[in-house]
């Protein structure tokens, strides 16, 4: 969020003060006005000058053509937030691209968090992939009447962190103002909003606001009163950055080293900004009641009875090797007064966790939602290391208040415990485990209250499986705010994306846990893409969906189930249903409807089934060949059977951003082409390059075979892991004329402890690291490659240095390349100005080297003029 401009009079005063206080100003200051006690004659009248328009601000950013800007600047459709009582929908319109002023807001890099010191707001999204978004509009929709109520938001603020009360009468949210993150509340009946007291939230480490079980108050993290100014830094006070290892082995994943602490001053800043005061805030009066003493608190979770609170806090010493989630933690149960009622665990720093492993000791704490205060957690039995062969990897423990008895073991999992879904009925839980080595998952129906009852297998399948994916349980919200699996008799309900050979067709199923018989209640038809949102109140006969098609923007629909259908084909809904539109969101970009898309299926040379979506530009005439751009993101699979399964849908509402904007300039897009890397997860990257080339060759041959794509005018682009793909295809094939690589990693030796699903270190798989890295083949990168990167990329695997060094390598070897570093940008580009620059660069590059390229074998004309350099 940008600061408000200072009044001109204040600016003048500050300027004068600066000149008076500066012994030798760099720029000349105006001469001070002498104080003279003599009469001053009246000035002669002068004509009033005509107003002069202020010159536009000078920008170092370029813009694409206006027809591209029109689409880029259009708002995105809102997202639905269904109330727990299912009678209202809160439509939230997010700012798609904030201004560069917001993106450039100063922040500190502290133990894996980027925090804005002005307010303690997190600057980025989880994982550091983008700038934290702001809502620009709220609209309440009554499901029964479709009546819409505009919800006023604080002017000049940034709203986020929306959470409904369990009774659906109110919703709370955060608002970042000029100097604080405030707590606001909205009335669901009237849409009125107001600030709740004078609470100053501290969202730096998460869990900053949540409803208490009584739904009358909120548990929040506050900036401690009287915190004082931040610790001042100096060159002498910081001292050297010192780390030491004592011979103990242990790998730290590449992705645990983001923005780590580096010196004592970093430690002081981390403690200052992360320290929080827990408090209860009355949802009506805004009165604040503090809970316990200030501490560096990470996780906060009230028990269903509201009398116990699970609190996880960080203790010293802090680590310079890993990020705050892996710091030493104390896990405790507090009572309503803040007294420590029970110490669950004192966890050491977890800076030597095996790649794809878990820390030792208790982890994954959670309350059993249907009990007053019963805690469940998991503990590794294999040292957290998947390399070790054991009969059981984890045990699952349970302990009830008052926590005086010993915890009970309720389950052991053969593979890694990955969660426990609790039903609203006692005695039913869904226990999940995952095998990293085989990409395999199993789900069991368990009764933790009767340990003698052996858990029964419900699902046993590959985690890469799409077509047979049973979906996710449908949840209800209890009056205390706890989420539970919806259950009627012996049946639960499941919803999923519905991947199939014809594309995604989302569904809703009813599954009997005793007979294991499944009944399909709803399936999206073949002419739209319609997802389940939630049941309305009452029996499971009416539910809300989110419907879209290539020509219809996303909108909420109310479906009512009717009579059984005779002669239904397998996989289709067995009952009829009627629909009514609940929302009426308009199309923000009607011109884009002229873009057409089709799902194309084909095979790789080894028989692996593949697919892509082919998009054709507005006004495309069948039978003509046009230039095309291929976009893909390689994914890792353990089996060809799952690698070739179709994902996505040609019935999706078409939206254009990034490379898709090239459609407006006459390009076809070979979109989301399947690029599987198939093999044993322990060594799949041994054949990465060979499979990458075959993936690309199959996609290009098929796209040309449609009659749409001109084989001599094809470019390739990809982001992150897709950028690595792009650079490798430019280096090792002649399938493309040019490439655009954004936010990539091109030298894998800089991520020595693994990447993607590769778990060998560079010392154990040196040849693999070298082979997949296009940096080491820069002498072969002779085709034009545009390299773009965010200058503040927080992803440790794709540091900005990766882009700089690849460009230097190409330049030094006589290749054709252009490096564009986007100021202040993280891994995904957030600012409007940056996305305008991205669209400008992609269009300029592909027009020059693909659309208008000479036929293969003929030299390109010499460049005219002076190329633009860094400003």
Which structural class matches the secondary elements?
A: mainly beta
Q: Total strand count, please? A: 47
Tertiary shape: globular
Strands of the widest sheet, in order across it, are 38-39-42-40-44-45-46-47
Task: Measure the end-to-end span.
Answer: 25 Å
Query: What is the share of helical residues?
Result: 10-25%
The radius of gyration is 29 Å
Strand content: 25-35%
Main beta-sheet annotation: 8 strands, mixed
Please state the average pLDDT score.
89
Unreliable stretches? 1-56, 863-871
Tally of contiguous helical segments: 11
Describe the structure.
Helices cover 13% and strands 34% of the residues. By secondary structure, it is mainly beta. An eight-stranded mixed sheet has the order 38-39-42-40-44-45-46-47, sandwiched between helices. The chain has a seven-stranded antiparallel sheet with strand order 12-13-14-15-16-17-18. Strands 27, 30, 31, 32 and 33 form a five-stranded antiparallel sheet that branches. A hairpin with a 6-residue loop joins strand 23 and strand 24 (429-435). Helix 7 packs across helix 8. The protein is globular. Residues 1-56 and 863-871 have low confidence and may be disordered.
In short:
Helix content is 13%, strand content 34%. It is built from eleven helices and 47 strands.
């Amino acid at each position: 969020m940008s600061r408000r401009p200072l009044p001109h009079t204040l600016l003048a005063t500050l300027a004068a003060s600066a000149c008076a206080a500066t012994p030798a100003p760099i720029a000349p200051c105006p001469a001070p006005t002498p104080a003279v006690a003599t009469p001053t004659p009246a000035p002669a009248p002068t004509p009033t000058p005509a107003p002069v328009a202020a010159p536009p601000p000078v920008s170092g950013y370029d813009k694409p053509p206006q027809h591209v800007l029109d689409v880029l600047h259009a708002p995105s459709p809102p997202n639905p937030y269904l109330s727990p009582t299912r009678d209202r929908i809160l439509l939230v319109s997010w700012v798609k691209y904030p201004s560069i002023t917001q993106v450039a807001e100063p922040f500190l890099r502290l133990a894996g968090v980027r925090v804005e010191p002005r307010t303690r707001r997190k600057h980025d999204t989880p994982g550091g992939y983008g700038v934290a978004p702001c809502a620009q509009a709220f609209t309440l929709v009554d499901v029964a009447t479709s009546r819409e109520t505009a919800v006023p938001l604080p002017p000049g603020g940034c709203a986020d962190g929306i959470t409904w009360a369990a009774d659906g009468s109110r919703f709370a949210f955060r608002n970042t103002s000029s100097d604080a993150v405030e707590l606001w509340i909205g009335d669901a009946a009237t849409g009125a909003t107001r600030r709740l007291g004078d609470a100053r939230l501290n969202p730096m480490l998460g869990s900053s606001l949540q409803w208490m079980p009584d739904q009358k108050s909120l548990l929040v993290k506050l900036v401690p009163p009287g915190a004082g100014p931040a610790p001042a830094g100096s060159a002498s006070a910081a001292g050297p950055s010192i780390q030491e290892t004592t011979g103990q082995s242990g790998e730290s994943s590449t992705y645990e080293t983001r923005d780590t602490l580096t010196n004592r001053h970093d430690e002081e800043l981390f403690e200052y900004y992360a320290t929080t005061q827990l408090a209860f805030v009355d949802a009506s009066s805004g009165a604040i009641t503090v809970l316990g003493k200030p501490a560096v608190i990470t996780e906060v979770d009230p028990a269903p009875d509201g009398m116990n609170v699970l609190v996880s806090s960080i203790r010293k010493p802090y680590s310079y090797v890993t990020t705050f989630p892996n710091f030493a933690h104390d896990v405790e149960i507090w009572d309503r007064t803040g007294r420590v009622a029970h110490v669950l665990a004192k966890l050491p720093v977890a800076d030597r966790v095996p790649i794809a492993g878990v820390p030792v000791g208790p982890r994954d704490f959670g309350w059993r939602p249907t009990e007053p205060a019963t805690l469940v957690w998991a503990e590794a039995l294999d040292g957290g290391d998947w390399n070790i062969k054991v009969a059981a990897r984890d045990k699952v423990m349970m302990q009830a208040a008052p926590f005086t008895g010993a915890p009970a073991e309720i389950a052991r999992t053969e593979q890694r415990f990955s969660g426990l879904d609790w039903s609203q009925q006692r005695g039913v839980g869904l226990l999940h485990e995952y095998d990293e080595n085989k990409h395999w998952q199993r789900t069991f129906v368990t009764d933790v209250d009767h340990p003698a009852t052996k858990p029964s297998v419900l699902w046993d399948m590959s985690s890469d499986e799409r077509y047979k994916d049973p979906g996710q349980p449908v949840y209800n919200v209890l009056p205390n705010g706890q989420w539970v699996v919806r259950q009627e008799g012996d049946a639960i309900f499941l919803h999923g994306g519905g991947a199939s050979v014809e594309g995604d067709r989302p569904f809703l199923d009813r599954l009997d846990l005793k007979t294991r018989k499944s009944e399909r209640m709803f399936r999206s038809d073949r002419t739209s893409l319609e997802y389940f949102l939630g049941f309305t109140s009452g029996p499971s006969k009416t539910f809300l969906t989110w419907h879209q098609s290539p020509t219809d923007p996303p909108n909420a629909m109310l479906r009512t189930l009717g009579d059984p259908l005779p002669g239904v084909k397998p996989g289709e809904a067995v009952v009829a249903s009627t629909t009514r539109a609940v929302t009426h969101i308009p199309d923000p970009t009607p011109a884009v409807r002229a873009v057409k898309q089709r799902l194309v299926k084909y095979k790789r040379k080894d028989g692996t089934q593949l697919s892509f979506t082919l998009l054709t530009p507005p006004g495309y005439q069948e039978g003509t060949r046009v230039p095309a751009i291929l976009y893909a993101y390689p994914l890792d699979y353990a089996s060809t059977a799952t690698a070739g399964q179709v994902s996505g849908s040609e019935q999706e509402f078409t939206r254009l951003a990034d490379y898709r904007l090239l459609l407006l300039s006459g390009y076809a897009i070979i979109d989301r082409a399947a690029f599987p890397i198939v093999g044993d997860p322990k060594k799949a990257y041994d054949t990465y390059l060979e499979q990458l080339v075959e993936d690309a060759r199959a996609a290009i041959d098929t796209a040309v075979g449609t009659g749409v794509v001109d084989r001599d005018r094809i470019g390739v682009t990809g982001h992150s892991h897709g950028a690595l793909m792009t650079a490798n295809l430019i280096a090792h094939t002649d399938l493309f004329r040019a490439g655009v690589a954004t936010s990539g990693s091109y030298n894998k030796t800089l991520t020595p402890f693994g990447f993607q699903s590769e778990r060998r270190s560079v010392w154990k798989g040196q040849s693999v690291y070298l082979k997949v890295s296009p940096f080491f083949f820069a002498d072969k990168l002779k085709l034009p490659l545009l390299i773009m990167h965010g200058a503040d990329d927080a992803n440790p695997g794709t540091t900005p240095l990766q882009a700089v060094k690849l460009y230097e390598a190409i330049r030094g070897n006589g290749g054709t390349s252009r490096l564009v570093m986007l100021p202040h940008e993280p891994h995904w580009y957030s600012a409007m100005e940056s996305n305008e620059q991205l669209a400008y660069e992609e269009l300029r590059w592909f027009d020059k080297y693909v659309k208008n390229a000479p036929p293969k074998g003929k030299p390109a004309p010499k460049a005219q003029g002076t190329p633009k350099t860094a400003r």
